[in-house]
Specification:
heterodimer; A: mainly beta; 7-stranded mixed sheet; 4-stranded antiparallel sheet; globular; B: 115 residues; mainly beta; 6-stranded mixed sheet
Chain lengths: 116, 115
Amino acid sequence: GAVVSQHPSWVICKSGTSVKIECRSLDFQATTMFWYRQFPKQSLMLMATSNEGSKATYEQGVEKDKFLINHASLTLSTLTVTSAHPEDSSFYICSASHSMGRTEAFFGQGTRLTVV
Amino acid sequence: AQKITQTQPGMFVQEKEAVTLDCTYDTSDQSYGLFWYKQPSSGEMIFLIYQGSYDEQNATEGRYSLNFQKARKSANLVISASQLGDSAMYFCAMRGFSGADKLIFGTGTRLQVFP
C-alpha cells in the first residue's frame, strides 16, 4: 500500500508556543489530505480537509486560526497548532488518498502532542 | 449527514475463534464506501477491508470479511481464527462519494483476544 509519513511522532511544547506537524505522501500524489484529532480512548474526529493549492475546509467547531493547515504540494500538508494550550494536548493523525472516492485513506503514524 | 454507529465498546474472544464486530451506518448518499481500520496501542491506523455500496459480493481479505447488508445499513466485520495480535481498537468508517468525500469514523470497539 501507499506510504504516508507524519513527523514528528511526538512533541512536547510550552504553552503559548506553536507546533508544526508534517504529513507527507511518500510514493503517491495526494490531492486531498485529512487531519484528525483523537482523544484517549475516543474515536478520530475530523478536523479539516486539506486540498492542494487551496484553503482547507474546516469542520464545525474547529478554530481555523488556531489550527493552520497548509497544503503546498501534492505530497505535503502541514498542521500548525498556534499558541498551544494544555487542552490542545492530543493525538493528531493525517491521512491521504490517491484520488477522491473509492480507495482507502492511508494514514500517517500520528503525532502525540503534549502542551505543558 | 452521515453517521457511523458501533454499539460494542469492548469484545472478548478466545484465540482461534471467530468474532463479529458490529457497525451500522446512515447516509443519504447513493454511492458510498465502508471501511474497517485496526488501531493497535501504537496509534497507527491499519486498513483492513473495503466494501463499496454497489459491490454485489461481500468483501474478504484473508481472515477478515465484511458482512454487508445494505437494506439494514450494516457492515459488520468478521475476524476468523483470532490471534493474540488481533487485540486492538477497531474502527468502522464511511465515505460518501457525492460531496465532500470525508471519511468519518465510528466510536470503535476494543477487541481483546485471550489464550
